[in-house]
Amino acid sequence: MSKNKKPTKWMKLDNAALIYPATMNRSWTALFRLSATLTEPIDEDILEVAQKRTLRRLPWFAYKLKRGLFWFYLEHSDDLPKIEQDVGNPCVRMRLKSKESFCMRVRYYQNRIAVEFFHVLTDGTGGLVFLQTLVAEYLRLKYGANIPRGDKVLDCSEEPKPEEAEDSFAVHSGKITQSRKEVKAYHIKGTDERGGFVHIITGSMNASDVLAKAREKNVTVTEYLTAVLILSIDAIQRRKVLHQHRYQPVKISVPINLRSIFHSKTLRNFANYANIGIDPRLGEYTFDEVLNIVHHTMAMEVSQKLLNVKITTNVQTQRNTLLRLTPLFIKNMAMKIAYSQVGDALSTTTLSNLGVTKLPKEMEQYIRRMDFILGPPADNRVNTAALTYNGRLRFNCTRIIAEPILEREFFTRLVKLGIPVKVESNQMD
Q1: Do 90 and 200 form a contact (C-beta atoms < 8 A)?
Q2: Is 30 within 8 Å of 375 (Cβ atoms)?
């Protein structure tokens, strides 16, 4: 992109983004949050300048959602999102029909900088690049910090790179498709919170403890946590459902970052989901049995050939001539029905682990902690997300029911496995 070239005025939604405008409603928008807690209080004026410079480097984050005749699309705005103090619940629904509403927002509170994204823009990986670049620019402006730049912390003096705005789903779509048919999964039930209150329960643990336990079993940290989560939900279902023949599958939706597999540099959405789980009707499972299932399922799910088929299935549906020519209001109704059948219904919850975040040492001295939070789920009552920074793995549970059923079971199991957990809550007594 040349120095004087402005960002593309509008962009099509990538394949993963298409479902979110159709399924959002008055109480739910598909949001996620990434935050960095610094050592000193945030200066709003400097943060505004840092945001301006970051959006100049990453202009595809300065887009608003617009309704077309046949599809929703993204339109660039030369205005800047308004930075506000972070009060109330995280991931509060975005009012996207407002002319002022962007698909992302920057918030601050005391020492914390938080960025919330509507999933039409990006996924956790792309969002993390934005947050790290924003914080690096803030530190440069406030402290004169000389921070090395690279793939994860971008240089705001550089020009935008077109490959970062690529729709990699379309680029890597092939010809072979497959069926999306799956058995519906068990859903945790409880008393819905009034007033839209969202519980955020954080379990903080030494990352080395979790890694050591995972290595003992020859699995990854994500696989280890997924297995514990499956057994936690399995135990909940067995207590609540009296008859074995009425048990439903317990399945965890685990995002797979496709960038390294397909050599993509996009900062838009580029992840697929693996629904990994067990069928409790077959009997009780040991921890090793579940670990084995999770490990081997993940090994199959990260096959480039299988992933290409999944990408192609989704993209070919999008390219269907009849669907393309269908007016948006009819398309939205159809997509809502489809999502109810192949969306949240197929998984019990999500576990999104962004892994270890490594920052330049010139940044680390200013940043105490980092967090990743999935917004309230659409149909499922609990979402989970994890991120490791500075030796601490923080596992965040987002819950919209009153009862702390899942996190209590999950963290208790981790402690019994020899992993001490420090629990925090956003609930005020």
Answers
A1: yes
A2: yes
Whole-structure pTM value: 0.92
Say yes or no: 374 and 233 in one domain: yes
**Closest to 57 measured CA to CA, from 247, 267, 229:** 267
- Within a domain: 181: no
Three-state DSSP at 238 gives: helix
Give, in order, the Cα–Cα distances in Å from 281 to each of 61, 246, 342: 46, 8, 22
The kind and range of the H/E element at 23 are helix 19-23
Q: 134 with 104: CB under 8 angstroms?
A: no
Write down the pLDDT at residue 341.
64
Burial label, 235 (beta-carbon count in 10 A; 0-12, 13-18, 19+): middle
CATH code of the domain in which 297 resides? 3.30.559.30
429 pLDDT tier (thresholds 50, 70, 90): very low
pLDDT band of residue 7 (cuts 50, 70, 90) is low
pLDDT of residue 1: 45
How high is the pLDDT of residue 4? 42
What tokens appear for 186 in the block? 């068990």
Per-residue pLDDT, 131? 98
User: Model confidence over 165-180: pLDDT tens digits?
Assistant: 999 999 999 887 887 7
Q: At what angle do helices 287-301 and 221-240 cross, to 10 degrees?
A: 120
Tokens at 322, concatenated: 């009849």
Report the CATH number that the domain containing residue 26 is assigned in CATH.
Answer: 3.30.559.10
Q: Which helix (H) or strand (E) holds 205?
A: strand 199-206
Cβ pair 375, 32 in contact under 8 A:
yes
4 belongs to a structural domain: no
Same domain, 148 and 242: no
Residue 169's CB is within 10 A of a number of other CB atoms, namely 27
Q: H or E element: which one contains 356?
A: strand 349-356
The token duo for 300 is 């199959």
* DSSP result, 59-100: GGGSEEEEE-SSSEEEEE-SS-PPPEE--SSTTPPP-TTSTT
How many domains is the chain built from? 2
Segments in 320-371 forming alpha helices (H): 321-325, 328-342, 361-364
Residues sharing a CB contact under 8 Å with residue 17, sequence separation 6 or more, in sequence order: 119, 120, 121, 268, 269
Give the pLDDT mean for 123-152: 96
Structural domain of residue 90, as residue ranges? 10-171
Same domain assignment for residues 199 and 59: no
